[in-house]
Amino acid sequence: MELSFRWYGENDPVKLQDIKQIPNMNHIVSAIYDVPVGNVWEKERIEALKSSVEKEGLALSVIESLPVHESIKLGENNRDHLIANYKESLKNLGESGIKTVCYNFMPVFDWTRTDLHHRLQDGSETLLYDHEYVQTIDPVTTNLNLPGWDESYTKAEMAALIEKYRTMTDDDLWENLGYFLNEVLPVAIKHDINLTIHPDDPPWSIFGIPRIIRSKESYDKLVTINNAKNNGICFCTGSLGCLEENDLPEMIRAFGDHIHFVHMRNIKRLDNHSFVETGHLSKDGSVDMKAVIKALKDINYKGTIRPDHGRMIWGETGKAGYGLFDRALGATYINGLIEGVNQS
Ligand code: DNO
């Protein structure tokens, strides 16, 4: 297992020079952020990103994310053109030596929280999801600060998108995911890329629109579409851990051949589907982090792991969930767990 760290590019307040000082940190997870979703990622841009990472002695090992256009998720008429662009981007990434590409199939919102500055008892700031609140609001008229929201949409565009999704069932979304994967997987296989789907976060439907990647059953369905190992999973402990019935070690053992990227993060489940993000330690949240690392060791996992969201500590400010300090603490904790399971 290789440790990695997410870096948001040259505008990220967290610098590569700082990241490489984290013990055992050699791999970077990044993306090109200024190409509109649906357009091709040109080779020169990929090479430029790669060389800015390599200049610091690090490797660009994972692309997170190569985003999927909403028209593909909706199965609209223009999807073939957008899928052709996706294939072209994959080919370009493959030719630049990228082996792991992360994406998600969450309609509109990606990861959703209701409070980005929730104060924990120790004075640190963290992210919180209040399910009751989400059930009472209209995302179009409420000024929600959504961390994963594509800010290029206007409110009117958001409203129109939500309307379209509200007429879709989970099965419709599965059908569109199947169509997409049947098209892009041959390209991924040809270029030796593992495509990894991120689970829905939170792993249930919100705002009346479908979400489908949330459980063992979802992964059973996913691998039925295509059982190639390239039809992969980004195993995110924080997202999947929101559902108590998700037995994370068991899921790792069941789908090991498809797991090529891991997000390690802890959450504490609160009442009625709400949850708060905690520090990485098992005892601080609901996820048994050691059991997860142990399961990864059992499947002989060779891919990358990144410490996922951190709290804001020691006065740091910046992108919610993506400061340096607490993610670095998470990395050292994961290092310790790996060393521990390797010796036992
Ligand atoms: C949140 C992230 C997600 C993830 C995408 C992958 O912190 O884990 O936004 O990058 O869902 O496509």
Automatic annotation (TrEMBL):
Pathway: Carbohydrate metabolism; pentose and glucuronate interconversion. Gene3D superfamilies: Divalent-metal-dependent TIM barrel enzymes (3.20.20.150). Its cofactor is Fe(2+); Mn(2+). GO terms for molecular function: ferrous iron binding; manganese ion binding; mannonate dehydratase activity. GO terms for biological process: D-glucuronate catabolic process. The keyword Transferase does not apply. Its EC number is 4.2.1.8. It catalyses: D-mannonate = 2-dehydro-3-deoxy-D-gluconate + H2O. Keywords: Iron, Lyase, Manganese. The keyword Lyase applies. Coiled coil: none annotated. Catalyzes the dehydration of D-mannonate. Belongs to the mannonate dehydratase family. This is Mannonate dehydratase. It comes from Virgibacillus massiliensis.
